[in-house]
Amino acid sequence: QVHLVQSGSDLKKPGASVKVSCKASGYIFTHYAMVWVRQAPGQGLEWMGWINTNTGNPTYAQGFTGRFVFSLDTSVSTAYLQISSLKAEDTAVFYCARVGGYEMFFDSWGQGTLVTVSS
Amino acid sequence: SYELTQPPSVSVSPGQTARITCSGDALSKQYAYWYQQKPGQAPVLMIYKDSERPSGIPERFSGSSSGTTVTLTISGVQAEDEADYYCQSADSSGSVVFGGGTKLTVL
To answer: Per-residue pLDDT for B1 more than 70?
Structure first.
């Protein structure tokens, strides 16, 4: 069955960078796009964008350009989210999720990675 | 971009029917999807393409669409259904939006 396993929680200081990983198994990695979703503490879900796992081409949602980078290592079926110049307001749980098909919906999710930004 | 509007909360007694609505102009042209999220857990897809149920999702969960409003219906609500529910859609360019979420309380 499909599994997405994310890296563990991380505590970072303001200005630092963080890289979250999402390792996929149970399906052909390059056949399904991957999205990233942010959930700030006590808040709702916010779509950050998606990456075409076949071409590596990323698409970023409004508000997630500049400091946010999606990347892949297809040899290990892993997607990455890197955030640079971290701010306190970046504190959130970040989820990767598999795009279910041609339509943009998400049929499998990682367990989430809590990134805490604090001095 | 556009918005999807959900009621912040819905309360229902066990065994009753819960209905959670989601409204947005794009819903008349685009499919809606529903996710369930329990505290400390990742979201789970409950309904796709307005009314389709993924395998493994109980039959008491159903979805419907009318105009610019979609509805998630939970028939015979159980205590385990207490969770946050999010609707989601995408516009023609592929940009995704989530509703603000509805907290379902089972009394």
So the answer is: no
